[in-house]
Amino acid sequence: MPPNSLLSELLGRFQALGESSLLIGFDEVQCWPEGALNTLLETGLIAPASPAKTTICKRCEEECSMRVRIIPGDHPRAFIMCEEHGREPVDLKELQQWQLTQGQLARWIADTLSLRFSGKRLDGGKLLELGLVSGKKRAQMLCLHTDGELALVAGSNRIPLVDAVQLIDEASSLDADLIRQLVDSTTGDARHTPNTARREVRKLETAAIHEQWRKEYRALKKKRPNMSDIWYSQQIAKMECANGKQPETIRRQMKK
């Protein structure tokens, strides 16, 4: 998965979740491009989170989600209790988690654009001030809209955050020129409004991908009826139709 696709994937999941933070598990990170984890940690976009309290039992085909029990001490150990196989050890490193929060995302945007970060909450917490951006015509406070679609807001104008993400030297960045256009734009000026047609095409393409996942899910369900949803999503993730998406993303869409 290209680095910019990874960031777009994370932002899409964060937006769909509708929460103030997104947890990222160990297994998911193993599928990332080499060096992506360290890069995101260094930029502050993600940060370490508390260890997972549950994990998937890999001993059985059912792949049940089981509660993790940790034995503390100088050399802590972890295990789960499998109903069929009894006590099964768990590698502590596989319980590692990372998180993406609204605050971290806002700080990353501000740092990427070299803004003096504000962090002030507005509009009942729906807007998070990022910093003052100067365009050719005016300067305005740039904000991150966090309620529903993640968007960059200046005055009464906005653009989806994902539209401003771009790849520079194999690293995810933001389109500063587009953001300055946002700051300079005035309400009702069609030259600076987001490309609605392009977004509609993207929505149709996404819907088609989701429908293909559902088709593959039904086929797998017919062939292997007693497997878990996690297993089905993992199989679909290996297919070309997965389009580079993670099993958890596929699992949320394949039964709708």
Q: Could you tell me the strand content as a percent range?
A: 25-35%
Mean pLDDT: 82
* Total DSSP helices: 9
| Assembly classification | single chain
The largest beta-sheet arranges its strands as 9-10-11-12-13
Q: Structural class of the helices, strands and pairings?
A: alpha+beta
User: Stretches where pLDDT falls below 50 for ≥5 residues?
Assistant: 187-198
Element pattern in H and E? HEHHEEEEEEEHEEEEEHEEHHHH
Biggest pleated sheet: 5 strands, antiparallel
Radius of gyration equals 21 Å
Number-wise, the strands total 15
Task: List the keywords.
256 residues, alpha+beta, five-stranded antiparallel sheet, 15 strands, 26% strand, globular
How would you describe what is shown here?
The protein has 256 residues and is of the alpha+beta class. It contains nine helices and 15 strands. Helix 8 packs across helix 9.
Summarize the structure.
Strands 9-10-11-12-13 form a five-stranded antiparallel β-sheet. Strands 1-8-2 form a three-stranded antiparallel β-sheet. It is of the alpha+beta class and 256 residues long. 37% of the residues lie in helices and 26% in strands.
SSE topology:
Elements: H1 3-17, E1 21-25, H2 26-29, H3 36-43, E2 47-49, E3 54-56, E4 65-67, E5 69-71, E6 77-82, E7 86-90, E8 97-101, H4 102-112, E9 121-122, E10 127-134, E11 139-145, E12 151-154, E13 157-160, H5 161-164, E14 165-168, E15 171-174, H6 176-184, H7 196-223, H8 229-237, H9 247-253
Antiparallel strand pairs: 1-8, 2-8, 3-4, 5-6, 6-7, 9-10, 10-11, 11-12, 12-13, 14-15
Helix pairs in contact: 8-9
